[in-house]
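haha ok so turns out i had the wrong file open the whole time. this is the CORRECT one, sorry everyone. sequence first:
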Amino acid sequence: MATTELKHETLPDEEMLGDLEKNKIRETPEDIKQEAIINTLAFHPKEDILAAGDVDGDIYLYRYSCEDGKNKELWSSGHHLKSCRKVAFSSDGEKLFSVSKDKAVHVMDAVAGKLVTRLSKAHSKPINALLVVDENVVATGDDEGTLKVWDMRRSTSFMSLKHHEDYISDIAADSAKRTLLTSSGDGSMGVFNLKRRRFELLSEIQDGDLTSVSIMKHGRKVVCGSSEGTLYIFNWNGFGATSDRFALQAESVDCIVPITDNILCTASMDGVIRAVNILPNRVVGSVGQHISEPIEEIACSWDKRFLASCAHDQLIKFWDISRLLAMSVSDYRQQKKKDGCLKALSNKAFGGVGDFFSGLLDSNDPNSTTEEAEDSDEDNDGDSERN
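then structure:
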């Protein structure tokens, strides 16, 4: 007797569910696990591509995606002999610049992953900072405080100035690309005239190392992070002394990244990424965390949708920062609150952390603020071992 084979007929709804399971869409891309600690990150200016440089001198390029399992390594490079300390894309995304402890500046074809230019002895000391000013001009800073500005068409420097007494940690330029600002381990911010190719001044010495520098508030304010956990704020054209300072409840401010003209994100040795409003000064919440692991660097994606972070846990993590784009902070002087937690600004913030963040104050709560946040609520333009 012949047996009848029973076949299950797949319904359209079941097919759709199957496709969704296969192509699960996440809020953020999956974490990227590395074999070594990542020092530096840079997002492509136009595409969902991320570059990373590690302590072994290797550089990796990834295409990231919110679809499960779709993060993809595009290429890797081992041209640097020692730790890669900074990577940065050109404005068109076609070139990737990098600097290293090996004192070299490299320029790579970002598509092919091939080395295009090597300045093997760009500095006499290890290079720590990098800024791509435009398609032909690049600024670099080294461990002994020397700033160099390069004409990449000729592979020669047309500025070489040493006015800092310690390492240069970061470099920023104004929108007109006339002024370069440097933060340094000697506690000062340097001001350099790029057009006239000369040194202008150093700020007063601040407490701790100045670890980072960014221009905010439509170019009217400059913010520096420090190893003491304080943000120092300068008026534009008032670089000699700070107009304001804001002490975060953090071990340090090792990296700052502007998200809007008013809000920036900070990375710290305590592993927390904080969102901070500048003038009025408020810690508005936590974007994410590497639990108990010092964060090396954070970077913002081209569409302002994600923040990426790298830490000593050898993970590259992605955080949703879309809420920050529409956030505004009132000038209203809030009441102090002794017991409160830092507000989570993404679904992944505080995930599985338990009581790790207890005691971190939520300065976005209408009933709470840090004591330091009350010091500067008015925006008054006239006032006031690395790898």
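The longest helix spans residues 12-22.
again sry for the mixup
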